[in-house]
Design goal:
heterodimer; A: about 375 residues; alpha/beta; Rossmann fold; 5-stranded mixed sheet; globular; B: about 290 residues; two-stranded antiparallel sheet; 11 helices; about 40% helix; about 15% strand
């Protein structure tokens, strides 16, 4: 079969990925720098029998996609910082009601209106802890336009597999940068559908406690009539205040994510094969600069490696620690005042690995040269590289 | 076998739609108008002769929003103020479903006001059942967007300084296709108003003046449920009668009945048409 290659920006690749994954409902509200996703969906969805709706605000957008998902349709929304803040309450609702949804957040500078057209990674923490109450998030972080396409498909698949909201965390550069994208053939990609009930309606429990932590999901109109509520509920979906039922439900929600951290979050490494003592950890667009910085450093005979997670929520902490076993100094590079670094400090033994910040929050990206300078600085302070 | 009384037959209808697995009693205070609304909604749905499987009842947060959990349909109890936005997603994704929203004056008109007017504007086929008791009941008696000026709430201890919304005027101005008002006293009229809303292809609002004797009644010395229903009886004026009366005779009345009923293209219908048009255009090109 002839390969299709396109020059796409990240937001366009996201639209392609979503449609391939089977998204047929999009509810959105215009916001820079994510708007091209809504525009693409508005144009494309009605041509394939899907539906797009421009809602009155971002709260309405996420509410509409949760509703559409309850009706059995794969659903997505896209926004940026301020809109992502508005969505937080209903992200918690999608989580507690175990409704598959995908929320794309194209990060821009904050807080508040912040820097609407500039790059940032300052929603790193919000993606994981934005909603109130205990919450275990999935947030995928692609680092090329090609990956935006594949991670959008992956986000839809994970939301269906785990019956949970999944966040695709992009940034302004990732969204607007244009790169060559290999459009996969439909038979090359795996599409996951939510598990459907096989029991008769009378036996059906919308929130059944199962061994895998994921229960089958019927859609509205399928003949299984049940209640969904944002209140803590029992297996049937009726509100409960029974302590044992509360704990069972909250543990179910947590465990289905936490137990699969190692399969959700993978790592890409560069120059880690010869056990460098200095490494750079970053995600998204910054990981591209880190990759280049490794090449520059190696040209200067400095043994440095780079590591990047493909998801920051949940973080596969066991394999992260294994990969950092020989690293004595870890540069955590990010586009904010220090969010990813706090996660690293939480999970890495600092007696063994020194954690060094490299932060930029002036609306510009971190360049390979800037990372290389940091490496030279470390070397200058007497580290063996 | 002797034929069952009219009352017994009506009661059978209600029981047919109550959830067998849900534990009663309900959460409402005794004498609350929401029980009447529940019964009326069930009878109105029953008259449509639709499958229970094709009916979705959506709600937000508040006393009225606890209603869907008791009835045997597809029910979605959402976040405060957002029921109409959730309902919009359901309806657009699966237009064959009959989508009903049960909400209150705080849920629909304060926190959810924006979703309400925009659903009217889109003329999407959703029926909103608005239980208007002029107060936030579940949180304990705070004034709402429909509390009359001067009336008391726990957050209006010296009387409400603001002017109230008229939700029906708001809905008409925003583009709703069907707007009606009734009370929990005028049950037969209420059944007709809800049925009219459910049958309307487009956005419909049925505002129901209800009683919260526990908070509104107590804080404003309006008395017990019976007294509050008597007030409704005395002050409700059917629109047909109101048209014949001079304005000064209507000063202390509120108008009931079908206030607005127009035919215009519904949102999902329009979207279906777009899908067909695009498919035809694509066939013609190829």
């Amino acid at each position: 079969m002839k390969r299709v290659v396109k020059l796409l920006q990240g937001n366009e690749a996201c639209v392609e990925g979503a449609l391939m994954a089977g998204v047929r409902f999009f509810g959105g509200y215009p916001i820079t720098p994510s708007t091209e996703i809504a525009e693409g969906m508005a144009r494309r969805l009605p041509t394939i029998g899907g539906r797009f709706i421009q809602m009155e605000d971002e709260i309405g957008s996420i509410a509409s996609i949760i509703g559409a998902s309850c009706a059995g349709v794969k659903s997505m929304t896209a926004t940026s910082g301020p809109g992502f803040s508005l969505m937080q309450e209903n992200i918690g609702y999608a989580y507690i009601t175990e409704t598959p949804t995908v929320i794309v957040n194209v990060q821009r500078g904050g807080p508040s209106t912040g820097l609407p057209t500039k790059v940032s990674q300052s929603d790193t923490m919000q993606a994981g802890h934005g909603t109130h109450g205990d919450y275990y998030a999935i947030a995928l972080v692609p680092s090329s336009v090609q990956e935006v396409l594949h991670f959008t498909i992956k986000a839809v698949n994970l939301s269906e597999r785990f019956r949970t909201p999944v966040i695709l965390l992009l940034d302004e550069v990732m969204a607007h940068m244009r790169e060559k994208v290999d459009i996969p053939n439909p038979d090359e990609i795996e599409i996951v559908e939510r598990k459907r009930p096989t029991v008769p309606p009378d036996w059906y429990k919308h929130f059944a406690l199962t061994a895998t932590g994921v229960s089958a999901m019927a859609s509205f109109g399928d003949g299984y009539r049940y209640n969904i509520t944002g209140l803590i509920h029992d297996e049937l979906g009726f509100p409960t205040a029974e302590p044992s039922e509360i704990v069972a439900m909250l543990d179910k929600l947590k465990q289905k994510i936490v137990k699969h951290a190692e399969s959700i979050c993978e790592f890409e490494t560069n120059g880690m094969e010869d056990d460098p003592k200095v490494a750079i950890l970053s995600y998204g667009i910054v990981a591209r600069a880190a990759k280049q910085a490794v090449i520059i450093a190696r040209e200067h005979r400095l043994k440095v490696g780079a590591i990047r997670p493909t998801a920051i929520w949940p973080l596969a902490t066991d394999s992260l620690r294994k990969r950092l076993k020989n690293v004595r100094q870890l540069i955590v590079a990010e586009l904010n005042q220090g969010q990813l670094i706090n996660l690293m400090k939480q999970h890495i033994d600092q007696r063994h690995t020194e954690i060094i910040p490299l932060q930029r929050y002036d609306g510009e990206i971190i360049s390979p040269g800037q990372i290389f300078n940091k490496i030279k600085e470390i070397k200058h302070h007497g580290s063996e590289i | 076998m002797a034929q069952k009384s009219d009352m017994a037959q009506k009661s059978d209808v209600v029981h047919h739609y109550l959830r067998p697995k849900k534990k009663f009693p309900h959460v409402w205070c005794s004498g609350c108008g929401l029980g009447v609304i529940l019964g009326s909604l069930i009878r109105s749905i029953d008259s449509l002769q639709m499958s229970k499987n094709d009916i979705v009842v959506c709600s937000g947060i508040g006393c009225s929003s606890r209603l869907p959990v008791y009835i045997d349909f597809n029910t979605l109890h959402t976040t405060h103020g957002r029921a109409i936005a959730f309902a919009t997603g359901i309806k657009v994704a699966k237009p064959k479903l009959k989508v009903i929203v049960v909400t209150g004056d705080g849920d629909c008109l304060a926190i959810g006001g924006n979703h309400f007017i925009h659903a009217c504007r889109r003329n999407i086929d959703i029926t909103v059942i608005l239980a208007n008791n002029w107060i936030y009941g579940m949180t304990g008696g705070q004034f709402s967007p429909t509390t009359p000026t001067g009336s008391r709430g726990t957050t209006a201890p010296y009387g409400n300084l603001e002017q109230p919304f008229d939700p029906t005027s708001l809905a008409i101005a925003a583009g709703a296709a069907y707007v009606a008002r009734s009370t929990v006293y005028h049950v037969n009229q209420l059944d007709k108003m809800i049925k009219g809303g459910l049958e309307k292809k487009g956005f419909s609002l049925v505002e129901i003046i209800s009683n919260c004797h526990t908070y509104y009644g107590r804080l404003n010395r309006e008395g017990d449920p019976v007294k509050m229903l008597q007030w409704q009886k005395k002050h409700a004026m059917p629109i047909e009668a109101a048209r014949k009366l001079p304005p000064e005779k209507l000063e202390d009345k509120f108008i009931t009945g079908v206030l607005h009923d127009v035919d215009k293209e519904e949102y999902c219908h329009r979207y279906d048409r777009l899908i067909r048009e695009l498919a035809n255009a694509s066939r013609e090109r190829s």
